[in-house]
Amino acid sequence: MKIFFYILTCISIQLTALAENNIGVIIPLSGNFARYGQQIQQSLQETKSTSIKYIYEDEGCHPRKAITAYKKLTVINGIKIFIGPFCGSPQTAVAPMLPINKQIAILGSSAPRKVFQSSGGRMFSTQPSIEEESAFNAKQAYKMGSRKVVILFFENNFS
After folding, report:
1. Domain boundaries, the chain
2. How would DSSP label each residue in 68-108?
3. Nearest to 88, CA basis, from 71, 104, 107, 72
4. Of 1, 76, 115, 134, whose CB has the highest number of CB atoms within 10 Å?
5. What sign results for the dihedral spanned by CA atoms 78, 60, 159, 42?
6. For 56, phi and psi rounded to 5 degrees?
7. Topology (CATH level 3) of domain 2-143
8. What CA–CA distance (Å, rounded) separates 130 from 143?
């Protein structure tokens, strides 16, 4: 995971050379997924970039919190480049706002194709889409002889 964020930081350095040196980071720093957000934060801090300032906001994997975080970073901090949101429902909530403010977001987690579409092509995932992951997993299970499955999921924008 640390290598991923190092590469992401290198990409971000290239992008921020065009405009500002602040990057908004919308990650879960509270709730059930806080440990992931803390790992992301630690990885970014370990890059020790002197030219980039990361401004962190908690999304807690809740769309409303993510929208509040996004608006704060946009209005108060003037952020144009984001890492995150991390969780699916927050991604779906924030995506349509990116083209309005001419911002981009880089996701370190997989996301549904509709997130890229609703962002006007401004929200990029570094991983395959959820649809591609699901198709791959189904094919692998079929190759292993599975013909029946049970799927447990949360009913939200990510599922």
Report:
1. 2-143
2. HHHHHHHHTT---EEE---SHHHHHHHGGGTTTTT-EEEES
3. 107
4. 115
5. positive
6. -95, 140
7. Rossmann fold (3.40.50)
8. 20
Q: Which two tokens stand for residue 156?
A: 């939200």
Is this model's pTM higher than 0.70 or not?
yes
Integer Cα distance of 90 and 65 in angstroms: 8
The Cα–Cα gap between 126 and 143 comes to 27
Question: Which residue in this structure is represented by tokens 């990361």?
Answer: 54
Phi/psi of residue 13, each to 5°? -60, -45
Is the Cα torsion angle 89, 95, 100, 101 positive or negative in sign?
positive
